[in-house]
């Protein structure tokens, strides 16, 4: 069976699930291929760390299970079961059983370059529909990024690849206070919304902004805000994303409205779905010139006074580190999970 996060696994989880090969591992959990002995079907099994680092960590594990269990949408991974096993005394470990999907994540696809506008519009529609469903239930994903988007492949006739959101490890209900030290943030630096980078409370518009960054990256093949955590997060506070002029007018209008700096200026998710559906139906394939979306942090900073830039930097550093006394590691917390 092997070990996960330094713990030995039982032969059968919950008396029915056998573990197979490791699919992926992150800071919070590992995901294995598994088999449901009772229903004789293949599944994916996510095993969290044996012991939570702190209460907030334990709360996140339980929150992911509760959040996912209540959701049912084609653009979201489906939870089938959950349980606890005890590999050692006083170390109860949570596992999550999910549908096993065939396909790579979007991050892997982007290593080969940008996608066609039509393909981006279709996968964007899938994801926007998922965010619309989440918004109706006041759930904010908070970590929209290519690594958390699976392009699921189906063997059934006439069923295309579908984009699915995975990893709800830091999702929360909109309006619910964050279970974090005030002024800290969660997520992945290149895809944070401005309000996330500032350590503020977030709502559904935050996910819309992050999706906008992902779509620009899909169309150009490059991250909008590259670089290390602090400069990347700081860049979006002093400059808006540059939407490539090579894109159609419909694309430019949509992406600009999705990535407005203020949450209240962003387009509503229902309109995002409608516009992406329109683009998918009308967009003709054309060559995308890469590197047009890259933001120069130095150029962005020079457009503002030194005092304003310093203030923004202090805000971002405090948010990313959780302390006004300096940055310990420069990493967003928690680390990206499996």
From TrEMBL:
<keyword id="KW-0547">Nucleotide-binding</keyword>
<keyword id="KW-0067">ATP-binding</keyword>
<dbReference type="InterPro" id="IPR017441">
    <property type="entry name" value="Protein_kinase_ATP_BS"/>
</dbReference>
<dbReference type="GO" id="GO:0005524">
    <property type="term" value="F:ATP binding"/>
</dbReference>
<keyword id="KW-0418">Kinase</keyword>
<feature type="binding site">
    <location>
        <position position="46"/>
    </location>
    <ligand>
        <name>ATP</name>
    </ligand>
</feature>
<feature type="domain" description="Protein kinase">
    <location>
        <begin position="17"/>
        <end position="279"/>
    </location>
</feature>
<protein>
    <recommendedName>
        <fullName>non-specific serine/threonine protein kinase</fullName>
        <ecNumber>2.7.11.1</ecNumber>
    </recommendedName>
</protein>
<dbReference type="GO" id="GO:0004674">
    <property type="term" value="F:protein serine/threonine kinase activity"/>
</dbReference>
<keyword id="KW-0808">Transferase</keyword>
<dbReference type="InterPro" id="IPR011009">
    <property type="entry name" value="Kinase-like_dom_sf"/>
</dbReference>
<keyword id="KW-0723">Serine/threonine-protein kinase</keyword>
<dbReference type="Pfam" id="PF00069">
    <property type="entry name" value="Pkinase"/>
</dbReference>
<dbReference type="InterPro" id="IPR008271">
    <property type="entry name" value="Ser/Thr_kinase_AS"/>
</dbReference>
<dbReference type="InterPro" id="IPR000719">
    <property type="entry name" value="Prot_kinase_dom"/>
</dbReference>
């Amino acid at each position: 069976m092997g070990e996960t996060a330094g713990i030995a696994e039982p032969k059968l989880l919950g008396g029915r699930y056998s573990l197979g090969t490791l699919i992926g591992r992150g800071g919070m959990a590992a995901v294995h291929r598994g088999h449901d002995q009772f229903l004789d079907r293949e599944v994916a099994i996510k095993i969290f760390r044996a012991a939570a680092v702190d209460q907030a960590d334990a709360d996140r594990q339980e929150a992911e299970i509760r959040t996912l269990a209540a959701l049912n949408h084609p653009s979201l991974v489906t939870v089938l079961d959950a349980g606890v096993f005890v590999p050692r005394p006083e170390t109860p470990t949570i596992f999550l059983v999910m549908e096993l999907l065939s396909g790579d994540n979007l991050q892997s696809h982007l290593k080969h370059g940008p996608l066609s506008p039509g393909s981006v519009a279709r996968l964007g529609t899938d994801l926007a529909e998922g965010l619309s469903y989440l918004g109706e239930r006041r759930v904010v994903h908070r970590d929209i990024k290519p690594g958390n988007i699976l392009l699921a492949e189906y063997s059934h006739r006439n069923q295309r690849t579908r984009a699915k959101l995975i990893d709800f490890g830091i999702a929360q209900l909109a309006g619910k206070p964050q279970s974090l030290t005030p002024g800290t943030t969660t997520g992945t630096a290149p895809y944070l919304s401005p309000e996330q980078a500032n350590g503020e409370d977030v709502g559904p518009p935050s996910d819309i902004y992050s999706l906008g960054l992902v779509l620009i990256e899909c169309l150009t093949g490059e991250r909008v805000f590259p670089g290390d955590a602090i400069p990347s997060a700081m860049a979006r506070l002093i400059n808006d994303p540059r939407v490539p002029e090579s894109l159609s007018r419909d694309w430019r209008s949509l992406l600009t409205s999705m990535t407005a700096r203020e949450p209240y200026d962003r387009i509503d998710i229902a309109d995002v779905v409608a516009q992406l559906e329109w683009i998918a139906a009308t967009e003709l394939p054309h060559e995308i010139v890469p590197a047009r979306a890259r933001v120069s942090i130095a150029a962005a900073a020079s457009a503002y006074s030194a005092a304003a830039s310093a203030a923004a930097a202090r805000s971002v550093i405090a948010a990313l580190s959780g302390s006004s006394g300096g940055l310990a590691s420069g990493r967003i917390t928690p680390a990206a999970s499996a």
